């Protein structure tokens, strides 16, 4: 994530997705200063607040069962 897009990627886009009713989203960041390389941040839309709540942060390996079952070694994606 470039420094110039942090606000857009972390605040503006999630607000737009929530307003559109998108039930879940993942944000993927390149963490070049970290040995694992990529970080995946997972969120789900809270029906009461109509905003996103975090459901997990993953580095090195991504294993989730919702909304789909996925297991990845994130280092292989670089």
Which strand order spans the largest sheet, edge to edge or round the barrel?
1-2-3
Helix content: 10-25%
Biggest sheet overview = 3 strands, antiparallel
Alpha-beta content class: alpha+beta
Give the number of domains.
Answer: 1
- State the separation between the terminal residues, measured CA to CA: 15 Å
Helix count from the secondary structure assignment = 1
Q: Topology as H/E string?
A: HEEEEE
- Rg computed from alpha carbons, rounded to a whole number of angstroms: 13 Å
What fraction of residues sit in β-strands?
35-45%
Shape: flat
Total beta strand runs? 5
Uncertain regions spanning at least 5 consecutive residues: none
Mean pLDDT: 88
Structure description:
- This protein is α+β, with helices and mostly antiparallel strands and 78 residues long.
- The protein has one domain (3-77).
- 18% of the residues lie in helices and 42% in strands.
- The protein has one helix and five strands.
- The protein has one helix at 6-19; strands spanning 24-31, 37-45, 52-59, 61-64, 70-73.
- The protein has a three-stranded antiparallel beta sheet. It has a two-stranded antiparallel sheet with strand order 4-5.
- It is flat, with a radius of gyration of 13 Å.
- The two termini are 15 Å apart.
Question: What is the strand and helix layout of this fold?
Answer:
Layout (H helix, E strand, L loop, with lengths): L5 H14 L4 E8 L5 E9 L6 E8 L1 E4 L5 E4 L5
Antiparallel strand pairs: 1-2, 2-3, 4-5
Produce a short descriptive summary.
With 78 residues, the protein is of the alpha+beta class. It is 18% helix and 42% strand. It has one helix at residues 6-19; strands spanning 24-31, 37-45, 52-59, 61-64, 70-73.
